[in-house]
Design brief:
27% helix, 146 residues, single chain, globular, Rossmann fold, two-stranded parallel sheet, alpha/beta, 4 helices
């Protein structure tokens, strides 16, 4: 999920035990889907979705053991001040709930979750440092994810 131009995929494919079964990249704030176009040029369009992940039905996503998310970090980015970052309430930060939705609603949820390390996630939001990460951890705990 949130495949970008395929950085996670390149890393995983170096280890031949991983088969990429599906990918999704959609940029909500632009008409031209540049990252998805680069991804498809490099890896092909088979099993690649360029659709708003919140509109993808979980049964359309193939069964998988490892859910990888290039977590939408813009709402935690150091490119803006901590005070101005939107975190889980931002346009991209809310995409966490798409990950949660898959974990909650897949008939056979993935065994493993691998997310991008976003430093500011641990500090967001500015007025309640750590709240967003705590919300994520609690939501995983509520699903029984260990």
């Amino acid at each position: 999920m949130f495949a970008g131009v395929g950085g996670f995929r390149l890393g995983l494919e170096k280890n031949e035990q991983y088969d990429i079964v599906w990918s999704n990249q959609w940029e909500p704030s632009t008409k031209m889907q540049h990252a998805s176009m680069v991804y498809e040029a490099r890896f092909g369009s088979e099993n690649h979705s360029n659709q708003d992940i919140s509109t993808v039905e979980t049964n359309e996503i193939p069964e998988h053991d490892l859910l990888v998310g290039g977590f939408p970090c813009q709402d935690y980015s150091v490119a803006t001040t901590l005070h101005n970052s939107k975190g889980l309430k931002g346009k991209k930060g809310v995409l966490w709930w798409s990950i949660h939705n898959i974990l909650e609603n897949k008939k056979n949820p993935p065994k493993y979750l691998f997310l991008e390390n976003v430093d500011r996630l641990l500090k967001s939001p500015a007025k309640q440092r750590g709240r967003d990460f705590a919300v994520m951890l609690q939501s995983l705990n509520d699903l029984g994810v260990t």
